[in-house]
Specification:
It is a single chain. Helix content is 3%, strand content 31%. The protein is mainly beta. It has one domain: Distorted Sandwich (Coagulation Factor XIII, Chain A, domain 1), CATH 2.70.50. The strands form two sheets. Strands 2, 3, 5, 6, 8 and 9 form a six-stranded mixed beta sheet that branches. Strands 1-4-7 form a three-stranded antiparallel beta sheet, with no helix packed on it. Strand 8 (155-164) and strand 9 form a beta hairpin.
Length: 179
Amino acid sequence: MTIHSNGCYLLSRRRLAPTSRAKNCADGAVQNCGQIQWEPQSTEGPKGFPDSGPADGKLCSAGLAQFAELDDQRGGAWPATQLSSGQSYTFRWHLTAPHSTTDFKYYITQQGWDPNAPLTRSALELTPFLTVPLNGSRPANDVAHQGTVPDRTGRHMILAVWTISDTANAFYQCSDVTF
């Protein structure tokens, strides 16, 4: 197995996060995940979201075929982090190799999205509810971003995007949440 040392993942429930699909696979909380179980930090794809980046339906895998299992909604069977509408929340990342960073942005699905359909731009609020600018600085290995989650009810998805400033890529992590 290959472990890339240049990526990231949202941390497990024990440390808040919310837990990403990739981390759930790496922790064994979800089975039949393919390669992502050994490479939860490797969801790296083209930057520029939402104007460019991975194609619709392939956002959770960062457009990488070897991680396509992350794009499968599994009929809502992914573990979900419980949140309350409008609550303050600490989003935590573990970066296996911090990079010069443009920013971290957090997007959430619109009320009424179809949680059984592949994640698309049209399902997301395309204005991030939290942006953490780093302006080219290099973050620590473990970072935390305090923000307020939007008002929602039911099951939703948070797409977190870590944009690297000195490459053409960004890292994409999807986390299932319920309100």
